Amino acid sequence: MVAAWRGWREMRGSGRQGGSMSAAAAANASLGNLTDEEAGDDESWESVLKLVLKTLALVTIISSAVFGNLLVVTSVIRHHKLRITTNYFIVSLALADTLVALFAMTFNASVTISGRWLFNQTVCDFWNSCDVLFSTASIMHLCCISVDRYYAIIKPLEYPTKITGRTVAIMLACAWISSGLISFIPIFMGWYTTDEHLGYKLDHPDECIFVVNKPYAIVSSSVSFWIPCCIMLFTYWRIYVEATRQEKMLCKSQMGPAGMLCRNSTDLPNVHAPPHRNSHGDDPESGQSTPTKRTINKMKREHKAAKTLGIIMGAFILCWLPFFLWYVSVTMCGDACPCPDLVVDLLFWIGYLNSSLNPVIYAYFNREFRQAFKETLQAIFCSCAGCED
């Protein structure tokens, strides 16, 4: 989900050195022709098999990202109980991941499969800009979600007044605008790279090589990854501490079988749903030493939602941390930090894979999303098959 921050490897032809062969050498070469042809056929089939497997893998990742994230958007639109504050961020995140698949993965896949850039320099700049824009927007959305969960659990009484519809709109606008400021503007203005590379682009319009200067590398990686990650780690650490404290309080307040259940598991059947629209701050007794049943259920719903979103954040960091470590190191030390092309390809596509993971996480950890997905898929299949209710 991050921009193509690398120089695509050059296509180098193998030169032939002239020279005469002795008769013996010619005879030996003639005797070895059959073996060479057989080896060449084996290599050809192996290359074709690798290309087919690579193409299938990339198409699967792209298709699953588009389908899964559009399923998230459609499910939230169709199901009223999913239209809560936190899910507005999730819908916007799903849109960003869908655009990553359409405008970043597809171009990257074309280069990975064909081994060369198939378009012009304008499309190259557009691709790199979209890649930076949507990847940055994704982590900005995760940062917004962590702030939303922070207020919901750490400051529940302030949540209704702090996280309003207007606040959510402003946060989403800031996420997209800040992403645009470090993508399209510096890339199309040429601020992201060196003067030498700008000259190289003019001389080689059929190549798409994305070389960044150190200031842009520091600023872009900080805005796109490091600063938001620090914010998310801090907020989720505070959420974990507070959730642990609240669970201990709930366990102490519950007696008998309920207390035993609390000690054994906090994943009750009715806590898989995300928090209800008006569940924050509605209960003045939420600060009492003996919470009511309604307050207990509310806390558990919040904890479950925070856990699911924490897993989403963790998946994003695991997918993109290796790439950003490589990106910063190779920018700072240049040729002194070589990295095999295969490893670079894996770093990119492991990151892109994250765009396909979020819908799977929702379906596995959130009961209401899982049910909404089932109903949405049933409606789609019935519509395609022409079945009647």
UniProtKB/TrEMBL annotation:
UniProt entry tagged with the keyword Membrane: yes
Membrane-topology annotation of the record: Multi-pass membrane protein
Disordered: annotated span: 273-294
Location within or outside the cell: Cell membrane
One Gene Ontology MF term: octopamine receptor activity
InterPro entries on file: GPCR_Rhodpsn (IPR000276), GPCR_Rhodpsn_7TM (IPR017452)
Listed name of the protein: Beta 2 adrenergic-like octopamine receptor
Transmembrane segments: 55-76, 88-106, 126-147, 168-192, 216-239, 308-326, 346-365
Signal sequence bounds: none
Organism of derivation: Rhipicephalus microplus (Cattle tick)
Domain G-protein coupled receptors family 1 profile: 68-362
Single GO BP term: positive regulation of MAPK cascade
Family designation: Belongs to the G-protein coupled receptor 1 family.
Organismal lineage: Eukaryota, Metazoa, Ecdysozoa, Arthropoda, Chelicerata
Keywords of the record: Cell membrane, G-protein coupled receptor, Membrane, Receptor, Transducer, Transmembrane, Transmembrane helix
GO cellular component: plasma membrane
The keyword Cell membrane belongs to this UniProt entry's keyword annotation: yes
